[in-house]
Amino acid sequence: MPRPTLVLLPGLLATRRVFQPQIDALSDIADIVVPELWHHDSMAAMADAALAMAPARFALAGFSMGGYVAFEVLRRASERVERLALIDTQATPDAAEATARRHGLMEQTKIGRFHGVQPSLLPMILHRSHIDDPTIVQPILDMALEVGAEGFVNETRATIARPDSRPLLVDIEVPTVVIVGRQDLTTPLVRAEEMAADISTSRLVVLEECGHMAPLERPAEVTAELRRWLTQ
Q1: In which domain, by residue range, is 81 found?
Q2: 79-109 b/e with 16+ CB inside 10 Å = b?
């Protein structure tokens, strides 16, 4: 049996480093591809970039914004996706207040006020027990600076314009795992529960004492679930 290819889609202000624990641990069973999504300013362009890097058939895992891109990949080429992992993400579009907040951040960035991820934002994305853990926090800060202001604007524009992906869920027939931190404030547990309920082939995994950054906050558990999903 040939080795599967695993395409990992990072979230907003994230690079392949958000998946580094999984890349290190799963390279024994899969060829891993991580596109740099921040160069593109639409979900369509991000999905096309991922598809261009992928073989004819592949496993697909999307984290946060990467989940939105994963849904766009399914719209374009569902027949190429062998299995699906949705990590700390949601199928619903933003509410009006979230869109307004994103527009405000984008405008601040355009006038030179991009400072990456500020420490004051960490309680929104990390479980409280992880806020002072440099092995978790430093990669988050570093990734944001690597993506930079232009990348942030691209990703925010794409995220604002994304379609509602809930209608897609009932048509997903490949093995699917939905992973979420119980204390995820960004894409909360209820959103994961809704996705899992609508995907008949899904399994829901809730990680305890974990916020939005599950691949970094609970790397061993996320890796174990992805290994199980890849080999089932």
Answers
A1: 5-94+156-231
A2: ebbebbbbbbbbbebeeeeeeeebeeebeeb
pLDDT at 142: 95
Q: Give the CATH number for residue 70.
A: 3.40.50.1820
Low-confidence spans in the chain with pLDDT less than 50: none
Sheet with 202-207, edge to edge strand ranges: 31-33, 5-9, 58-63, 81-87, 176-181, 202-207
Residue 120 host element (H or E):
none
What pLDDT score was predicted for residue 1? 65
This prediction has a pTM of: 0.95
Query: Encoding tokens for residue 144?
Result: 């944001």
The whole-number pLDDT of residue 107 equals 80
